Amino acid sequence: MAWVLIVVAGLLEVAWSVGIKYTDGFTRPLPSVLTGAAVVASMLLLSRAATTLPIGTAYGVWVGIGAAGAAVVGMAVLGEPVSTARIFFVSLLVVAVVGLKATSGR
């Protein structure tokens, strides 16, 4: 169950990191509230998962999902540059997340 929580927390991290773009410096109420709610929910799920998973693994996977997901959404939806190098480095993040999961011993 902890791994499900980490994945959902990571997806919420993607949501809030992308949501920041739409808050316009936290001057737009609805995007700001939704972004804030996603931050809180993501942290709560991370903290819950960290009660049974090693913190280095839980945090590393959470950050990896968030960073890779935000980069992919940025390229796919927000018009950020797409290059072979960017795709390669996002792929490395995914490999790191899978590696942390595979070596966690759980």
Write a brief structural summary.
The chain has 106 residues and is mainly alpha-helical. It has helices spanning 2-23, 29-49, 55-76, 84-102.
Structure, described:
This protein is an all-alpha fold. The chain has 4 helices and no strands. The chain is flat, with a radius of gyration of 15 Å. The model has no long low-confidence stretch (mean pLDDT 95).
The averaged pLDDT comes out at: 95
Number of distinct helices: 4
Give the overall shape, derived from the CA principal axes: flat
List the helices and strands in order: HHHH
Q: Please tally the β strands and state the result.
A: 0
- Largest sheet, strands/sense/barrel: none
Low-confidence stretches: none
Our estimate of the beta-strand percent is: under 5%
* Share of helical residues: over 70%
Tell me the quaternary state. Answer: single chain
Question: Radius of gyration in whole Å, from Cα?
Answer: 15 Å
Count the domains. 1
Which structural class is indicated by helix and strand composition? mainly alpha
Alpha carbon gap, first and last residue: 11 Å
Which labels suit this protein?
106 residues, mainly alpha, 4 helices
Helix/strand layout:
Layout: H1 2-23, H2 29-49, H3 55-76, H4 84-102
Helix pairs in contact: 1-2, 1-3, 3-4
